């Protein structure tokens, strides 16, 4: 009931005027501090010390595995990927990845349960069925994966590399969640972005996913692509609603062709202008809310019965590099080129170069090339930011208890601005608790930015962030 009420309250909020006023650029806070704070002075010993503290904490583990290859280039893509037709290249990488799995697993006590694992890319499903099977069993041999009933095992799927039978194999291995890259159903848009896949293909996969009883299916959609209009995206969303995925991610396309060369291949003149992009976002969001989806926050929608919505309602939602997750207390071990780990109070990242990654693994050396050890201040601010982003509230007394500070003194400067957000109706402040209102949830990143101590310097240095909305 609570969610339904909030939904109806949110219906009227997606208006262009509100969005225009609050649409600033800022970090997405998949981590705090953000990756801009990672530095190369971070040492292997820093990582080992963190792994030892992590073992002492006996916290469960979460795994992320990066599989970077794709068969063809989607022009909008900003991921760390390699386009190849070569099976040899994929095999060579898989061997390096298996070496890393063996090496890193030795740093963690073998009994520590893994409750969550995500395979991302690139296109994980571009690997053959035999290779995917080999990789799954290799992970299972070196980490203690809990059974599929209790664990959350997800994989990103490019529908063009997937068949209903292959989906059956994934379920058989133990995956219970899938995420399909849809982006848009419009033929003209698909041709412009060099990613053509039919509605029929997706329908077949949805039927198969139901037959195989996957716990949750996510669709990735993008707005702001060439030839998109309010009307064309409305049709795509209608088709999406018909297919009824459990979760939907509606991402903003950021056009940065100087940084991501392939984006220069998009017909720039066909990109919807900023004003129309806003209208597309409002219309698409309202359409999803009207269809009964709940707005989770930052691009994410879910059915009220989905675990993501239930976890948020119960205050159990967490955020990591894959977006929102239902597992709050776990250390994250990243495996594969460019992957990021969060171990105890340390973030560390593997090299972003696949050649270097494979070379390091062949030499039996650590692939970690950057990271950061969090200070106590980082941990306090991370606690505040994650609470706002995931639970939609901030309980100063909890932060005080956890970190032994006096909230109003520690955040003397931030409190003034926080109260400004209360005046604006983005937050309420009652009984000593700040609640993010439905309106505030649309721009929650802006509220979080207030607590980011590094942001003013990054802005001065000209760092480029995506828009809040
Ligand atoms: S969008 Fe996905 S499938 Fe397309 S090139 Fe990027 S990583 Fe590969």
**Would you identify the CATH H-level superfamily of the largest domain?**
tm_1862 like domain
CATH C-level of the largest domain: Alpha Beta
Largest sheet: 10 strands, mixed
Distance between the termini: 27 Å
Taking all Cα atoms into account, the compactness measure Rg is 22 Å
Mean pLDDT: 91
Please tell me the total number of domains: 2
Number of strands: 20
The total count of helices amounts to 19
SS-derived structural category: alpha/beta
Note poorly predicted spans.
Answer: 1-7
What's the overall geometry? Answer: globular
Work out the helicity level.
40-55%
CATH topology of the largest domain: pyruvate-formate lyase- activating enzyme
Named CATH architecture of the largest domain: Alpha-Beta Horseshoe
**Ligands in the structure?**
iron/sulfur cluster
Strand content: 15-25%
Structure description:
The chain is α/β, with parallel strands linked by helices and 469 residues long. It has two domains: 127 residues, Arc Repressor Mutant, subunit A; 295 residues, tm_1862 like domain (pyruvate-formate lyase- activating enzyme). Strands 1, 4, 5, 6, 7, 8, 9, 10, 11 and 14 form a ten-stranded mixed beta sheet that branches. A three-stranded antiparallel beta sheet has the order 15-16-17. β15 and β16 form a beta hairpin. The longest helix is centred in the N-terminal third of the chain and has 19 residues. It is globular and about 60 Å long. The N terminus is likely disordered. Bound molecules: iron/sulfur cluster.
